[in-house]
Design brief:
Blueprint: H1 2-29, H2 33-39, H3 44-58
Keywords: Membrane, Transmembrane, Transmembrane helix
Transmembrane segments: 12-37
Length: 59
Amino acid sequence: MKNNLKNQNRGFLQLIIIIVIALLLMRYFGITISGILDYFHLTWAGILNWFKDLFNSVK
């Protein structure tokens, strides 16, 4: 049980580190989230629908 909890904590820490590094790279290169969405031809509504479908499929 302790080993499983340690693995979960390690995964969460890795996720936090990846997010921080991604944000720092975005700031360095001057990339915005809206710019990324425009590049991939995505909209906020499309992303929210994707998350809604993802959460509904987990239930």
